Amino acid sequence: MNIESRLAQIGSQEDPRTGAVNYPIYQSTAFRHPRLGQSTGFDYSRTKSPTRSVLEQAAADLENADGGFACSSGMAALTTIFALFGQGDHLIVSLDLYGGTYRLLEQILSRYGITASYVDTNDIEAMEELCTAGTKAVLIETPTNPLMMITDIEKVAAWAKSKGFLTIVDNTLLTPFLQRPLDLGADIVIHSATKYLGGHNDVLAGLIMTKGEELTKKMGFLHNSLGAVLGPQDSYLLMRGMKTLALRMERHEYNSVKMAEWLKAHPAVEEVYHPALPHHPGHEIQKRQSSGNTGIFSFRMKDARTVEPILRHLKLIAFAESLGGVESLLTYPAIQTHADIPEEIRKKVGVDDRLLRFSVGIEHIEDLIADLGAAIDAALQEIEGA
Description:
The chain is of the alpha/beta class and 386 residues long. The chain has two domains: 3-242, Aspartate Aminotransferase, domain 2; 245-385, Alpha-Beta Complex (Aspartate Aminotransferase, domain 1). It contains 14 helices and twelve strands. The chain has helices spanning 3-8, 50-62, 74-82, 99-108, 124-130, 153-163, 175-178, 213-226, 232-242, 245-264, 283-289, 307-313, 343-349, 365-385; strands spanning 67-71, 90-94, 115-119, 135-141, 166-170, 188-192, 206-210, 269-273, 296-301, 318-319, 329-331, 355-359. The strands form two sheets. A seven-stranded mixed beta sheet has the order 1-7-6-5-4-2-3, with helices on both faces. It has a five-stranded mixed beta sheet with strand order 8-9-12-11-10, with helices on one face. β4 (135-141), α6 (153-163) and β5 form a beta-alpha-beta unit.
């Protein structure tokens, strides 16, 4: 079936006993054994639970994976993946990186002897120079958050495979509806499922998908051993959100492209970072390896003084962290999502005091343009009158 049908039918045929169209929430943490030495397949809910299992199988199916693992958050999923590595291991990581990932690597994993180098992952020569005897994997965000840098997944995965490295791809922003990194050669895909997969700003979750029997077994062991698993109610909420993913992503893309084009033409805006725009340096790669664009992008104001009043004058759009929900959110990365990245590194990458990140929701585009336009106008009037 096409992905739209598979999404809509998640869990709808998994309970033949009752015929439930929405798969039930099995709240139980313990399960009876028929007799000594026999199991129903469910023993203890950390290891495996019915509702979570249906979600994990659906997620693996969407990414063409051999295994799927649902975690209690995106960071829990990332921590579970990083448990593959140990003392002396080294990772090559996307330069423009979500601040929480940077914090985990530099403030926590570094204490256990795991190191990371940050680079433009399209620059194979630069990655070659960073390789050490302990290098074990490449971690790619594509598009990156917040500057929407695009990495050629197929090229990097082929290079990593030639070196014996794992390729890990954060597919949060595009979802399997638009991009499937495992088909392009990646070994592991991660999602902060809180974002587009859940889609309603009401569930905290992470997903891991793996390719290959041995790697899948390792991940299953770590998932159970670390125990940062997703509970049954959140598993249900995530499945419910994923059923409408196709419809939502189509609207997110339409709205974000229209908004990006409008901002590109605005005299108070210096730059817009959206891969759908022809001037974006990753535009052609994005067209080749994905079937569309996400609903998030960033833009840079010409004058830093406009940022605070813009955020204050918003009425429809919320000044809030996170992304991927049906409601539009505007975020200030320098003090929110990327606050844990040192200022000199942030500025070098381009996350400065003029950058705003826009998670465009599914509202009517004319209302969104009117709201942001009015906020920018009010901001310009304030600084002109100051």
